[in-house]
Amino acid sequence: MSAHIHIRGLHKSYGRFAALRGVDLEVAAGEVVVIIGPSGSGKSTLIRCINLLEEFQAGEIVVDGTAVRGGRSLKQVRAEVGMVFQSFNLFPHLTVLENVTLAPRRVRGLTRPEAEARGLALLQRVGLESHALKRPAQLSGGQQQRVAIARALAMEPRILLFDEPTSALDPEMVGEVLAVIQSLAKTGVTMLIVTHEMGFARRVADRVIFMEGGMIAEQGAPEDLFKTPREPRTRAFLDAVLGS
Amino acid sequence: MGLLDTFFNWPVLRDALPLLLRGLGVTVLLGAASIALGFVTGLAVALLRLYGPGPVRMLARVYVDLFRSMPLLVLLVLVYYALPFLGIRLSSFAAATTALSLVSCAYTAEILRAGIEAVPKGQSEAAAALGLGFVASLRYVVLPQALWVVTPPLTSNCINVLKDTALASVVAMPELLKQATQAQAAEANPTPLIGAAVLYLALLLPLVRLVGSIESRHRAAAS
């Protein structure tokens, strides 16, 4: 099976600051890749380039055979790539159900009953169908993030990007969101997850990538990378976050 | 003649009332047309100013600055009395609507620009990530939130436009104030002016209250 995501020689800078300095990455269909690393290492920037929320200066990204660049192909790529943000970014003026049905109706052209049936099924999957008619502001952070996951799933994406999905949550809500993400990992959707939750990374990842200074410093199976990191800077980072 | 006979003369008011009401109708029509035109064009100018190519953005900014600083009376006189020299002859209603909506457009554009900019960037990012195009993102995600934020200043602008319709009397528009001053001259009594003032208040006070109640609802929603 061909790689779902192909990234070659990716460079991205904000003014004089180089956020990505030549990233090469192949992600296979159905693979779950967790990206870890210190803040400012380019993790978020990397996944935000995949659906072109960030423009990049050099290199190429190909998603399922479609090159990611501006114009008509971009909408196609974005419809196939779902994203979950650190700060949820739910639409506050819409109900929970409307949040989930907006894109299927306006992008996929589903009728309202079709979209609502799909939306309710997804809300049920994340355990929130009884909140369908509430506004996001009436929900807890963890519930909001689960709605955001349902919203992304409603487009039936083949790739899901998670940008620090639990970093804005109170500690007691992290678990419920991670449980939902972990259940998705078994469904065969390709996932790229940026996170600081090392235990979760270890449980869910097929492969862990350690980024530093805008480059991939080391990558491998979670057991290898967490137990026997080759790079001293990987070891230093893991020591710091795991407190060992 | 006493104060009551002079300013609150019932027979005079009764005679003038049909004229005043007709004037009120013209005022409302003129105001509504100018507000509607000003909103549609103001939205267009706001979008051009935010998302247009460089030179267009610049032009939109110049337009907004120019028409916010130009006194409406000057603009009215220019449109009604100067444009005919260029071969453009507008009726007094068309001239008044043009001048009023040119100014309302500038204010509306500025209000909407601020409203759109107040919507967090994450909102349009989430819309884009879901595959919504620019227009769909604007229509379903950004504008509804922006309009909610700017309802109070937009309503205030409507109030200003309705009040400014009184200036249209200088281009022979038979709106409320014009009717009142004419009735005053005909009756040699200022009561019609008082009548006009009462009608203006009846029209505008509810709008002013509306701004207040929307603002308190916003505060409640924000807390």
Structural write-up:
- The complex is a heterodimer of chains A (244) and B (223).
- Chain A is α/β, with parallel strands linked by helices and 244 residues long.
- In chain A, 39% of the residues lie in helices and 26% in strands.
- Chain A has a six-stranded mixed β-sheet with strand order 6-7-8-3-9-10, sandwiched between helices. A four-stranded antiparallel β-sheet of chain A has the order 2-1-4-5, with helices on one face.
- The mean pLDDT of chain A is 92.
- Chain B is an all-alpha fold and 223 residues long.
- The longest helix of chain B is centred in the N-terminal third of the chain and has 42 residues, at 10-51.
- The radius of gyration of chain B is 21 Å and the shape is flat.
- Chains A and B meet through helix 2, strand 6, helix 3 and helix 5 of A and helix 6 and helix 7 of B.
List keywords for this structure.
heterodimer, A: 244 residues, alpha/beta, 6-stranded mixed β-sheet, 4-stranded antiparallel β-sheet, 9 helices, B: 223 residues, 83% helix
List the helices and strands and how they pair.
The complex is a heterodimer of chains A (244) and B (223).
Chain A: E1 3-14, E2 17-28, E3 32-36, H1 43-50, E4 58-63, E5 66-67, H2 72-80, E6 81-84, H3 96-106, H4 112-125, H5 141-153, E7 159-163, H6 171-185, E8 190-194, H7 198-204, E9 207-212, E10 215-220, H8 222-227, H9 232-242
Parallel strand pairs in A: 3-8, 3-9, 6-7, 7-8
Antiparallel strand pairs in A: 1-2, 1-4, 4-5, 9-10
Chain B: H1 3-7, H2 10-51, H3 54-69, H4 72-82, H5 92-118, H6 121-129, H7 134-164, H8 176-187, H9 191-222
Helix pairs in contact in B: 2-3, 2-5, 2-7, 2-8, 2-9, 3-5, 4-5, 5-7, 6-7, 7-9, 8-9
